[in-house]
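Pipeline run #58 for the internal structure catalog. This entry was flagged by the ingest filter as a single-chain record with no existing model, so it goes straight to prediction. Upstream metadata was stripped on purpose; only the residue string is passed forward. Reviewer on rotation: M.T. Logging verbosity set to normal.
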Amino acid sequence: MPQPTGPSPHETAHNARSAHPSNPVHTVTADSLVTIDFGPRFHRRPDHHRSDRHCSDRHRPDHPRSDHPRPPRPRRHPPGPYRRLFARPGTRAFTVGNLLARLPMGMFSVSAVVMIAGSRGSYALAGAVTATGLAATGLAGPWIARLVDRYGQARIAVPATVTAVLGSLALLLCVRYGAPDWTLFAAYAATATTPNLGGMSRARWAHLLRDDPGALHTANSFEQAADELCFMLGPVLASFLTGTFFPEAGTLVGAVLLLTGALLFTAQRATEPPPRAGTGTARTPLRIGPLLVCFVATGAVFGSMEVVTIAYADAQGHRSAAGAVLALQAAGSCAAGLLYGALRPSGPAERRLPVYLLAMAALMSLPLLAARAFDSLWALAPALLVAGMATAPTMVTAMTLVQDRTPEGRLNEGMSLVVTALLTGIACGSALGGWAAEHVSPTAAFVTPAAAAVTALFVRLASRIASANSLHTH
């Protein structure tokens, strides 16, 4: 029988006692090789500790290198400007409420015209009532905005909104139950107390982002895109409600949306700018007079383009498609506004505004060229889409100048004066565009919005030249 060639058990025990903990002991039993490791034992750690230990052990000389390297971690793209904007606490909440309250701004006039004309059989009466409300809004808006600056948004906006909602409901009841015509004027005039919710939202952004001009540019661009979206969807929603359900449905839903949105907006007190108690007596000059004239001319672009497009569609036998074609102009402006907000424009707004006014004057000639060259509503539609793309950058830059030149304690008042100037321009542009469409031709009437855009450019250039001469003289 062969003798075992390995060490004896006594020798194995001796080797085990004398072995260093880091050196394993080898022995042979029968036909098996046995390795005994007397090194320290560690408890198994959780996976994240093991991975940390593995990462640190890789730098040790005795650690074997892995043949399969760990895949690189995917790069995280930095959040976009709009995502950073709405990551600020409270911004999403007040924006949702504000958008709900602004949507009826494009609903009330259409709903009132359909409701009054359907009940009384007179578009002249319906137009006169809505014109009265427009004039009352131009007079009451700056006064209400001044109260908002002095006493705070929540204290003034809530009762003013309730008054406007009651005026809308009174108009609905007067039309429904055949009240005298003069009651329609009185009821609709009460809706002029509707606060400038878009201006109040811009005032909140200006307060929150007063130390971040880049983010404020993004916020102003978003607000302009929201304006275009509300004025694009508002008439569509009003037409759907009045045509599908009953003539008063548009006014009723608009009143509910206005009240609900205003309450949600004003409930966000953490983002509300503080009131300025001294604004009632401190008559700090706003220094936006020339800008207001420019806004009047810009409003004339909007008002004339709307009336002329409707007249042109009617002459082409597609009057029902006029709303969809006009929505393309608002869609182009909305898309351009969102894109403009994602960019970082170079140079001050004072220098950029004439450039954008020039672009608007050039693009507003496209509808005229399309109507003359093709004499087709379907050729006019893409021209309006492209022409609308110059509107948002122009309005955003002009609003930035208004914020720069308006004292912080009177920002709502300055914004309300801008709205009044726009409404004045819309009324004048509607009258001029309607006259040209009736007395000249619907095609030639597209000269009106192009001429209004050129006027806005000349007004801005003249004011800059006058300002430069005044500084040179002093």
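catalog note: Residues 42-59 have pLDDT under 50 and may be disordered.
catalog note: The longest strand covers residues 25-29.
status: ready for reviewer M.T.
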